[in-house]
Write a structure and sequence with these properties.
Elements lengths: L6 E5 L3 H12 L3 E5 L15 E2 L3 H5 L4 E4 L4 H8 L12 E4 L4 H14 L3 E4 L2 E2 L2 H5 L3 E5 L6 H8 L3 E6 L5 H29 L4 H8 L7 H12 L8 H17 L5 H18 L7 H7 L1
Parallel strand pairs: 1-2, 1-4, 2-3, 4-5, 5-6, 8-9
Antiparallel strand pairs: 7-8
This protein binds NADP nicotinamide-adenine-dinucleotide phosphate.
Length: about 290
């Protein structure tokens, strides 16, 4: 790859962004990283990244900018007025955070105002798949950008699904996250019910394992609930954010998803009880409150 095609700015080196940046470095890309709390970006220097002092320093002259931050408001704030203008002439913004429908429109609008090519590319998969380069990218945006984006996605992903116009990726991402958070909510209540009925919840997980009811996800998150130990792959706080995005999008289309509403309430309770930074499986702590 020549020139700026090899240069990627990663804004946000939290759980996901740090792992993604590391895989880009492993693939031989020139990676500049920026993070609000610099100490989370600095370890990437050992793998060859340049730690930038500002988002603008990271982006100046890069061929790609990846945003992997909390939400659309944060991304807009971090980009400010002039960060994107430093991107190379035909540079591409790969927006990979989960921002929902309105968030995606807001960010696509910012890209449009600045005539920057924009790809809506949220991801499926959490900390471990991000570290092992096994994410699934739900990409949407101009078809002609696809060949240039593929080498950037390739080191981070086991699969890239191209879905059409920008926005399609964020829509599918919300659908999948509704499934994930709903499953998590009912899993928490099932583990709590087992305990209340003097059924060892480990027996419940054994009973469903390997059959059509035994989602691997239930095994992973169920064990966390049984042990009440929640090392963070995806924080309860961000899962609550995503449930909010689902409720907002559903409400605008005349749906009233009661399960998502209940899950949002449980997340609120878990966060209020101090579990917001723990893994989303800590929703279990809210179920146990009542
Ligand atoms: P994370 O570890 O909490 O990282 C969040 C990032 O946003 C950090 O870089 C944080 O900076 C930054 N940030 C938050 N508020 C900010 C502000 N006001 N100004 C500047 N920077 C700010 O989150 P993550 O798990 O990597 O998730 C990142 C995105 O990917 C989110 O949209 C999430 O929904 C999505 N996602 C996550 C997963 C997952 O399993 N973890 C999976 C798929 C998608 P500091 O370090 O300074 O706080």
């Amino acid at each position: 790859m020549a020139g700026s095609e090899n240069v990627v700015a990663v804004l946000g080196t939290g759980i996901m962004g740090a792992a993604m940046a590391r895989n880009l470095l492993g693939a031989g890309m020139e990676v500049r990283v920026w993070n609000r709390s610099r100490e989370k970006a600095e370890p990437l220097a050992d793998s060859g990244a340049t730690v930038a002092d500002s988002p603008k320093d990271a982006v100046d002259g890069a061929g790609f900018v990846i945003t992997m931050l909390t939400d659309a408001g944060t991304i807009a704030e971090v980009l400010g007025e002039d960060t994107l203008s430093g991107l190379s002439g035909d540079g591409i913004w790969l927006q990979m955070s989960t921002v929902g429908l309105e968030g995606n429109e807001q960010l696509a609008g910012i890209a449009g105002e600045k005539s920057i090519a924009y790809v809506d590319a949220p991801v499926l998969g959490t900390k471990a798949p991000a570290e092992s380069g096994q994410l699934i990218v739900l990409a949407s945006g101009p078809e002609e950008l696809r060949p240039r984006c593929e080498p950037i996605f390739e080191p981070m992903a086991s699969k890239v699904v191209w879905l059409g116009e920008a926005g399609a990726g964020s829509r599918l991402k919300l659908v999948v996250n509704n499934w994930i958070t709903g499953l998590l909510g009912v899993l928490a209540e099932t583990v709590a019910l087992a305990e209340a009925l003097d059924v060892d919840p480990a027996r419940f997980l054994e009973a469903i394992e390997g059959g059509p009811l035994g989602a691997p996800y239930a095994q992973i998150k169920g064990k966390m609930m049984i042990e009440e130990d929640f090392p963070t792959s995806f924080s309860a706080k961000l899962a609550r954010k995503d449930t909010g995005l689902v409720l907002e999008a559903a409400g605008e289309r005349g749906l009233h998803p009661l399960i998502a509403e209940a899950v949002a309430r449980r997340f609120d309770e878990a966060i209020q009880a101090g579990h917001g930074e723990e893994d989303m499986a800590a929703i279990f702590e809210a179920v146990k409150l009542h």
